[in-house]
């Protein structure tokens, strides 16, 4: 059975999907393009949680709150992503999603978002997961750092412009892999990069990851859809809201509280709208 490597990356609202951080961009590209059409996927995702344009994550990925406000939620973008994966594979081919440090980061976000919207049954075929960090560590053992921007600079002798954009990052991964493949095939015409990547990184079936993360959610009693309590204020009571622990959401342009208790305590001071 043939394998199709799809390089993928997420930009997110934070580092931990189990603490209600969400995906805000999905970027993916084929490692080997059979033709110039339909080789990449790039979508902004509405996180469906409050976001501050001054947050650390927002400053890193630089996705504006206006773009997030007008985007579709993960529930709809994932279906588009799954349809795209279906369109690039044949019946006898496996899809292997490969992300950089994905075993510790992207895979968790992917599965948690799927479980949040009950999407685990949407994909009609097996998806396998791989991690380019493990692969690059084997390919370039003498590199002091295997972070994508540093590796890109050291291997390709150029700066990675626009890092922390999902599509930019997967393109960087692909260029590093293509450079390594070119060097190897010069010495061995039978070299197969996909086979080598599979040998260097134990593949994980997404179904097994779903089972693992479901167990974690149950054991740790993690709420995937915590309630957000929004309020509207005028210029005279903003200071009261902030003093009570309220925060500003740049997507919905409203203040909110993370707990029912904080919300109830604020009722006497502000006008509730929803």
If you had to describe this structure to a student in words, what would you say it looks like?
The mean pLDDT is 92. With 274 residues, this protein is of the alpha/beta class. α4 (106-116) packs across α9 (206-219). It is 41% helix and 19% strand. The protein has two domains: 2-219, Nucleotidyltransferase, domain 5 (2-Layer Sandwich), CATH 3.30.420; 229-266, no CATH class. It has eleven helices and ten strands. The protein has helices at residues 56-61, 65-69, 74-88, 106-116, 132-139, 148-156, 166-187, 193-200, 206-219, 238-243, 260-266; strands at 2-12, 23-30, 40-46, 72-73, 93-99, 127-131, 204-205, 229-231, 247-249, 254-257.
List the helices and strands and how they pair.
Blueprint: E1 2-12, E2 23-30, E3 40-46, H1 56-61, H2 65-69, E4 72-73, H3 74-88, E5 93-99, H4 106-116, E6 127-131, H5 132-139, H6 148-156, H7 166-187, H8 193-200, E7 204-205, H9 206-219, E8 229-231, H10 238-243, E9 247-249, E10 254-257, H11 260-266
Parallel strand pairs: 1-5, 3-4, 5-6
Antiparallel strand pairs: 1-2, 2-3, 6-7, 8-10, 9-10
Q: Regarding CATH, which class of the largest domain? A: Alpha Beta
Structural class: alpha/beta
In CATH terms, what is the fold-level topology of the largest domain?
Nucleotidyltransferase, domain 5
Low-pLDDT stretches: none
Radius of gyration: 21 Å
Average pLDDT works out at: 92
| Biggest beta-sheet profile | 7 strands, mixed
- Give me the CATH superfamily of the largest domain: Ribonuclease H-like superfamily/Ribonuclease H
Q: Any guess at the CATH architecture of the largest domain?
A: 2-Layer Sandwich
Estimated share of beta-strand residues: 15-25%
End-to-end Cα distance, whole Å, is 53 Å
Extended strand count: 10
Helical content stands at 40-55%
Question: How many structurally independent domains?
Answer: 2
Strand order of the largest sheet: 4-3-2-1-5-6-7
Element-level helix/strand string = EEEHHEHEHEHHHHEHEHEEH
> What is the number of helices?
11
Basic shape: elongated
